[in-house]
Amino acid sequence: MISRKSILAFSCCGAIALGVAACGGSSDDTSSTSGGSSASGLSGAVRADGSSTVGPLTQAVAEKFSESNPDVDVTVGQAGTGGGFEKFCVGETDINDASREIEPEEAAICKKHDIPYEGIQVANDALTVVVNPANPNDCLSVDQLAQIWGPDDPASSWSDVTGADSSFSASIDRFGPGTTSGTFDFFTGAINGEEGVQTKEYNNVGENDNQTVTGVEGSEGGIGYFGFSYYEENAQNLKALEVKNPDTGKCVAPSAETVQDGSYAPLGRPLFIYPNTDEVTKDPLKGFVSYYVDNVNSIAPDVGFITLTDQQLSKSQSTAKSIGG
What we know:
Blueprint: H1 4-13, H2 15-18, E1 31-33, E2 44-50, H3 55-68, E3 72-76, H4 81-88, E4 95-98, H5 104-112, E5 120-126, E6 128-131, E7 139-140, H6 142-149, E8 173-176, H7 182-192, E9 203-204, H8 209-217, E10 222-226, H9 228-233, E11 239-240, E12 242-244, E13 251-252, H10 256-260, E14 268-275, H11 285-299, H12 310-323
Helix pairs in contact: 1-3, 3-11, 6-7, 11-12
């Protein structure tokens, strides 16, 4: 399995192998990928940005794509889904990685600037709630999670959460993404009933989900949430909570199987790329998007992502083909 840390190290420090180094980085945390052994005739640049959840998958696809397309420079930033759409909808990028669907106000900005787009699902995700391994609680309901993450008078200790293990009285220490994150939007909508509504009493890690890992690991009462791939990368140091399905009442663990069969509700979700459909009719973007959807199911498991079902994959490939001209 190719780890997330390996991807980041490779894309930041592989100046010789990739041809373009990103060790210095930029304020957008953008990495650059080119290089390989056999030329395809494609050349130019592809600019992607957006979700920190989807970004590592796009980076992994870009690295594989570069093996046969050494003259195509693919940059992958992680400004967050919302931050990425701010760039995409004014024409600064070719693709936006997104952990949620585009919002109406974002669509209006794209329309204003004549940026056409199409959402293509590239993976599935089990948005995972993690706690410190010392926490005796194994499963929480949506209502219990709302008691912790809700906007009004959230629980300050674990013993304050109705129905939780009363023997555990550690203070609740929350870690979560910033407000431009698609993960923030999805979680707040699913748990608190309104997108973007959440307590401000939490450690805002922005787009750096690794801070959630270290924060929860270092706090007995710590709790956080992020994409399933981050949990898989750090499963030895964190405990993933099961979530009680509101319809069946059963506690369901996050996994590929429970996301694909729909039982991990309400925190199972699709992950997307949004290419500019004017630009995707041209190479190299056309070639990259085609490569992405044709190969994503073979690449995704190596970086901790949940693959598309056959039906989802067929739809994504059909969409990519229809907009690619």
